[in-house]
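Hi all, long-time lurker, first post. I run a small reading group and we've been trying to get comfortable going from sequence to structure in the token notation. Rather than ask abstract questions, I figured I'd post a concrete chain and ask someone more experienced to write out its structure so we can walk through it together at our next meeting. Sequence below, copied exactly:
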Amino acid sequence: MIAIVVGKQRWRRRRAVARMGVAAVDDFGRPGFAYLTDTHRKRRQVARDITGRSPDVFEPAGWVLADLLVELWQRWGDGRAVLSDRVVALHGARVVEADHRLAALGSPEVVGRQLARLTEALGQARSTAPLRPEVADGVHALLRRCTTDRAVMQHTAIEALLPRLRRPEPGLRRWLATQPPIVIDDILQPTPLRTEALVTLIEAFDTAGTDVILAFECGRARNAADLAASFGAAEPDPLAHKAFAATRALRQVVFERFVATGAAELVLATADGPVPVDPATEPPAEPSDLADLAFADVEPPLDPRVSVWACASPVDEAERVAEEVRAALDAGADPADCLVATADPDGAALIARALQRYGVPVDAAEGTRLATTPPGQLALLLARLGAEPFAPSDWLALGDLAGLALDGVLAALQAAGIRGGPPERWIGPIKGWAARVGAPFDALVERITALGALAGALSLDTPRTPSEWGDAWRASATRCGLDALTERSDTARRARAALDAVLDALVDDLAAVDPGPWAPAEAGAHLQAAIRSATLPSPRGGVALTGLLELRGLTPPHIWVLGLTRSHWPAPSATSPLVDAATARRLAPVDRLAEARYLLGSLLRNATGDPNARSLALSWPTTIDGQPTTCSRVLVELLARPLGDGTLRDALVQTVIAAPPEPGPAARVGMLGTLPHPAPPPGRISVTAAETALKCPARYWYQHVLRLDPHDPWDPELEPRRRGTAIHDILQRFYEGRGLRAVDPAERAAARASLHAVASAVLDEVESAGGFEPALQAWARDRWLAGLLDDRPLGVLGAWLENEIAEGIAPVAVETPIALPLPGGELSLRGTIDRVDRGPGGALRVTDYKTGQPPTRARMEAGLSLQPLAYVEAVRRGAEGAPVASTFQTLARADGVRSSGWYGDPDAMAAFGATRGTAVDAAEREERLADVERRLRAVLYGDIPTTRWGEALAGCDTCDFRTICRVRHDEGAEEAPC
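-- Answer (accepted) --
Happy to help. Here is the structure in token form:
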């Protein structure tokens, strides 16, 4: 039997399936059905739903379509293995290395991954595409490397599997016949090849006598035509088509193959249970909900369980959600019934910290990073050991993980000036230093000798075959005390198991590419990448924190969804220099906008129609880092729908500012400003937004209060904000990966290789979001990375690294958030300091990276740059009296990496060799901060004067709002605010 179940809510479809005779478990707790879906997230969720009812219940059989097809091939194919994505990418890197035309597009690892994805996409699309000659040659070369007598790519295996499913051999026929009923739930946008494979698999199950139930979500069926459209027997209206575009193509194929031929039974999942229907009959009546409003001309009542928030900033958004979650728990909600999802990957850490501040237990759905656990850290060190020279801090970290007593060794090494070499070379210099200063050295020598013995036992600097590398890494980890690390905690034990799985998979993949010897640097680099990408599942029990796509298949009673901005939801499509944008869209199986519409509709249907649902909150920040943002296009479509005399936005959207302060005295008596009734000001304001308010109050109100959308002309290059974020991420990850250790001239080559790897990973992430012309970005990327792995003139990153080596100072902190209360106590400034260094005499230097132009000298002298004042004062308050100065480091061009715009304590400026700048002592800075607060309060409470600084210093020529501004700018000067 083949049945197609259509219903509005997930609970209705699950009840219908159960009443059709498909039980979750039998009397002995064994699974009563097999579940087939398209993501591991949904498969895991169904298993948790079933096994969560009783500890004695077996986990149901669950398959992901792509994995099941591969498994069937491996069982009943022609004996060839299906290559993993990593193996195909490694083969792609070899193809790129052999073709200078492809090598010119970027590093072999990056272009190899893109070539692998393109080749698989062409096969999954069952289509051809116009490709440049070098790209077409690369695709053919990769296919030849991957399709051999022993292995095939995934799309090749699926194509070859189809005839075997149509005429199954006895073993496959027995397997099909012995399976429990198969439930297939809302598979979204499969590729053409997987669609054909799914339909063929359903036919094979049906022929073998195994029941198959396909479940699809639908909207409100107002009449027979709506129901027929849901079943695929008629074309839907435009609104309904948009709502269910993510499943439309699959529905059409399924209904044409099964419904039109009479091979499938049609079932409508109603609130009362399954109802067999005919598309020509009238469906049972049911009330409308908010999801229907989004895609049909109806006026449903507002549901108090649904709320929509427009928050002032990501911080306000996180605080509001954390407060609501805490309130739900205090009201008796089970943490397992609460879920927080975010569309912004950068916002996950923000909401996690907010939840923890409110005492909320958090279950991170992505799990604990293996690299953050002691076994993972040990494996990372061993992966680097044969690939690059170790600094003393690396050896000490390895010894600490191995359980050696190394107290006092680091301080002695620093005092003796030892900055490199293996431990056995430290003993002579240590003895010489100890003799000069009269310090005892016997204990130090004993500890260093023990570390040297450990280092001598770790031989990872010679080429090995993949299996030999696996044995060597395991043996080295055992010598370094992996067994003892494993006993520390349950997390460490799970990390040990995850590490074993990573090593097994990596060894198999390397052997599939080349069974011969691999160089230590190459094998170690692959092990590092595998460890950094691996996770181990977190133990459940807290409030789930997930990504937005993980909501597919989840229906907890309480849901909060954050970060629904246009830039994050739906996520932008990735770009590639290998194909043009039109070809990339045609080959991509996923329409992200259609998937986002489907997800929003599903959330609304289940939140308003499920009797167990309690609350659904959707939110987005209206500004990020002081820049205005807009909500997702999908939300715009929903909120713009008419409702009564207005729109849904008028009735539903709340403006949220977390913990707004009470209006100050000036607001109560009324300010002589342009706005007689301004909104209460925020208690926190970013440094950049405050700087804008000081320079030009009109611009601040246009941008941060009225939230006008600036003119946004298309630019083929990566926009400056994203470019700046990328350079910050690269430098942060580079130094964090080194443990904030200075770069020694002796390790120049290793440092360049490490910086190239970090930069490549960051640029891959940036470029996956699109929004630029690929050819121009490929050129810009090449210039950034120039000279790190080749002999070309140094690019920006290479020049920056040379500057770091020459200076020899390592940061003590990178990307550090600050909150600076202003003297009146009503306002505080927030921001992120790019870098803090400690120099001679304990002086501190705050560095702000600038990929564009830093503030001009005239603007600095006029005191219109607030960042130096705020950052210096924030660091000074936590530095126990150490002198502090700030500077801007320009990273716009390779020949222009320099520091300028010095500001702060004269002693700190002198310690770092600054000969020009603005010297301001602590007392004067406090006075300027008080003046800053007075001016900010006036602007925030509605006093919008002219800029007073003139158009040049106020930046009118680059203002986004100059075409609409009606403020007359005075030319007269005024006392500097900061």
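A couple of things your group might point at:
The chain is about 50% helix and 15% strand.
The first strand starts at residue 2 and ends at 7.
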